Amino acid sequence: MMGGIQGKTAIVTGAGRGIGRAIARHFVDRGANVMFADSDEAALSEAMADFDEADPKVRSFSGRMSEKLATANLLSATLDAFDRVDILVNAHRLVKASDPLDTDLDVLEQLLRQNMMAGLRMTQVVAKRMIKQAEGNPDTGSGGAIVNLSTLAAQHPVPTMLGYSIAYAAQEQATRAMALVLAPHRIRVNGVRFGSVMSHELKDSLRDKPELRDRIVEATPMGRIAPADELVDTVLYLACDASRFVTGQILTVDGGRSLADRVGTQTV
């Protein structure tokens, strides 16, 4: 791909499993230095088992992305390991049901904090570092790229998942707002809205409700559920200089499902 990521440094949150892990591993394969970040230590250890401990391109960080201190410590750990950060992928998320007529405010706050505020705070912290890095090179290349993973629930509200839907609708608006703020610094902020993709959460849902698979496949014009790897190249495109004039956009990867979403229950 034109304008690849070889030699660049990326932070990928939610990298312990599922889509986040697939993105982080693909970035390593493409020659990037990658900080795998996740709140699940066991999942993170499993993800890191695929790499040589002495590999200088790979590091890991365990912490709750919803906590301010963890955000600051993650950036510090990345700078200690690689001296800079060029790419941020906010792929961590929390999937939890919430009743629109009887919403537990604690659950709603948790979903907003994890799925919107954590990524926004990480964006703010990393963007400040990217701005500082770009100050010495005002006329060369990209100042950085930030990619936020979203969900069809942001566009097509899921009645049984009120907090989840609201959080990602807010996250998408934050993506657009931060794109405007950071564009003068040559930092691009984009999102990827996905559905009918085999995430870790969807695997769990299908284990509990195997009949859901047929409903998703039927609702997807391309007639299948895509593996996580098929989402990765879209994220790579937005992270690299091939998309250097693209910012504030939410690209949809869903096999056409959002054209006529008929599932209406679970959008993960």
UniProtKB/TrEMBL annotation:
> Looking at the record's lineage, which domain of life comes first?
Bacteria
What Pfam families would the database entry show?
adh_short_C2
Q: Which CDD domains match?
A: SDR_c (cd05233)
Report the protein name in the record: SDR family oxidoreductase
Keyword annotations: Oxidoreductase
Please state which protein family the record places this protein in: Belongs to the short-chain dehydrogenases/reductases (SDR) family.
Please give the PANTHER family that the UniProt record associates with this protein. Answer: OXIDOREDUCTASE, SHORT-CHAIN DEHYDROGENASE/REDUCTASE FAMILY (AFU_ORTHOLOGUE AFUA_5G02870), SHORT-CHAIN DEHYDROGENASE_REDUCTASE FAMILY PROTEIN
Q: Which InterPro entries match?
A: NAD(P)-bd_dom_sf (IPR036291), SDR_fam (IPR002347)
Q: Which organism is it from?
A: Paracoccus sediminis
